[in-house]
Design a protein that fits this description.
2 copies of one chain form a homodimer. The first copy, chain A, is of the alpha+beta class. Chain A is 43% helix and 19% strand. The longest helix of chain A is centred in the C-terminal third of the chain and has 51 residues, at 321-371. Chains A, B: One of its GO terms (cellular component) is membrane. Chains A, B: Its main location: membrane.
């Protein structure tokens, strides 16, 4: 923390967005240290441990708020701990040189096993919630900036969904001046805090931290330079974190509306539809799985109740009373445990089907726009990108 | 449900917003029945039981999303059940005659005992979250409409906070043409489903359901007529619900910016500051109380661990082995229960202090605006009302 504070003070960024600052004391320590350079700061509190998100800004923060993700892993996966953090997205509104800048900082659920990722559905649901939160809260912003640890590779469903639905651009793909780790990776094998075995399939490392941005029509935003650290502290030896830092210089200019950069890849409408479909299928699978677990738990509850009744009868009837009393504890435990699992997965199913319904609605609108001919198609996308969309009337 | 469907079909509103529709099957039944009159519908899914919120619209719904409240009562208050609902605010975006209309529907935590209201802090936190959600998602809306069961009396802190921070107006106070129950009450003693004893201190009943609205500068919104049911089905005998229905006819006109109705009461800035202060104090009290419970639970955990160690020693040492084994179950139960209480109240403290930090920031800005003279004061309020606020630069 001491060295991180020194580094941030020396670099004197306009804005520094941090994740995984789990201790509020660490934040308070940093805040004191950074006060002269970054007069504005905020720590986003949520969950049991905390979201870990905080921000330091050279410019006054006009407004802030946060949205805690509805789904965030499983409470019984204690060794993974994500559920206890209450992962969230934080929003800051800044007014810079007459521009309204909405800055989002987030940290999505970690991926512990890429081959058998039990958190995939939750991460897709989080990416959708994040995209919807940005979509609905940035309608009057001139510039939107999203930074954070998405725990998503660039081609992963969640990342594509987020970019397609919000229209955000990836600083790494857009900049002409990149310096740092190979392929822009933010978890690299050179970093001594990184589990080398997990990175085995990826010789250069993985890119899961992002700087994403967009500007509304009338403004043009570009990434002048993008730098990453490369597994070491930029000055002394050991790295400041297990993830590499991303440092971007962004440039915002006024521009006639038509100069807004057109999306880089292919026919946009069909791409949006295809990624929405894919996400819908993933959430649908998740709903089915959550319901399966809830049903399974309800059978266990039934079984536990039967067992308990049987034990009570045994104890009352005498004979093997001691055995009955001994077995009473585990069967009550089973009952309570199964009850908790049932409630949790019912809530998971509700959360996932809520997100699925939102996705389905957007999918329906995108299809309508596509069916009504290529003229109206850019309108939906422009509308979506600018948070308008009156064309659908 | 059958009679409710008939009623909604016959009245043929533009928009019908319902709360406490706990069963999705009921919603699906209504949806089928209302399809010809209300082609668009949505059910907001959340929590374990569900938010109970749904909407039927004659006009297409362009977009929708939802925000589940961070704090919503206590899971161990099973007989109250609010925690299990996952109470939320639902947002619909409609485009009507070239206007962007943001419609919010919500249901806040119930008040079970007004004299000793253990949910007061949570309801204030929910009112703040609701106000912030509206504030941040309605910045490009021309008209904002909030309907729902707030479980707040008109003068309650949560209600004042919501109205002061969003600039929403109360249809009942604004309309010149009201017909219905005495004083606009929405829970009246005439209703046979209402607990008469709870209403004893309020001879006419209580007003806890609202239609609130505002229009941005350039538009003018007024409530032409407001009607309520009066404890009976409008046609046959028994009422359709324990709450009276609110039916409003709203009129939106273009108007020069200066014709925007000025807030009805006194010096606005100081009123906002005073309600923010009051809410801050309430949340601060809540944080202290949540921390007290967490500390208490941690002591119980320590005690439970000691007891368990003692019982294990007793069992191992022989002698009163049977007693030790018998006591083992309740002490493990105590440990697990206290652990759950500890985690819950830690999360409560985090959630409350998150809301308190947001409040404090807004309070600071409002004070700055007041200090810098009466000229800039309306600017903050106008900015807040219109979701702008560049004047603070």
């Amino acid at each position: 923390m001491k060295r991180l504070g020194d580094f941030l003070n020396m670099e004197s960024f306009d804005l520094a967005l941090l994740e995984e600052v789990w201790s509020e004391q660490d934040f308070q320590h940093l805040r004191q240290k950074l006060l002269p350079t970054y007069p504005a700061a905020h720590y986003f509190r949520s969950g049991i441990i905390g979201s870990g998100l905080c921000v330091f800004s050279k410019h006054p923060i006009q407004e802030f708020t946060q949205h805690v993700y509805t789904l965030n892993g499983y409470p019984y996966m204690i060794h993974h701990g994500d559920w206890f953090c209450g992962k969230a997205v934080g929003l800051l509104v800044l007014h810079l040189s007459g521009l309204v800048l909405n800055v989002y900082v987030t940290h999505l659920h970690a991926e512990y096993n890429r081959q058998k990722d039990i958190y995939l559905t939750h991460r897709v649901a989080q990416a959708w919630e994040l995209a919807q939160f940005i979509h609905h809260t940035s309608k009057k912003a001139d510039v939107v900036l999203l930074c954070g640890d998405l725990n998503l590779h660039p081609k992963d469903l969640g990342c594509r969904l987020l970019k397609e639905w919000t229209g955000l651009h990836d600083a790494y793909l857009e900049t002409r001046d990149f310096k740092g780790s190979e392929e822009g990776c933010t978890m690299v094998p050179e970093n001594c805090y990184v589990n080398q075995r997990e990175l085995e399939p990826f010789p250069f490392g993985i890119r899961i931290d992002y700087v994403l941005y967009k500007a509304v029509s009338g403004f043009y935003i570009s990434c002048k330079t993008l730098r990453t650290t490369t597994g070491h502290d930029p000055h002394s030896g050991s790295p400041l974190s297990d993830h590499e830092a991303l440092m971007a210089t962004l440039c915002v200019r006024h521009s006639p509306p038509q100069h807004t950069p057109s999306p880089t890849h292919g026919p946009e409408g069909s791409q949006l539809i295809s990624v929405l479909k894919e996400a819908w299928r993933e959430l649908d699978l998740g709903v089915a799985q959550a319901r399966w677990w809830a049903t399974f738990a309800s059978y266990v509850i039934g079984l536990g109740l039967l067992l308990l009744a049987f034990l009570c009868a045994l104890a009352a009837g005498g004979g093997v009373r001691e055995v009955a009393i001994l077995l009473w504890t585990p069967s009550v435990g089973l009952l309570l445990g199964a009850g908790a699992v049932y409630l949790f997965h019912m809530q998971e199913a509700k959360g996932l089907s809520g997100a699925r319904a939102e996705l389905q609605h957007v999918l329906g609108r995108a299809r309508e726009a596509q069916d009504s001919g290529p003229e109206s198609q850019p309108a939906l996308l422009l509308g979506q990108q600018e948070g308008d969309g009156t064309e659908e009337q």
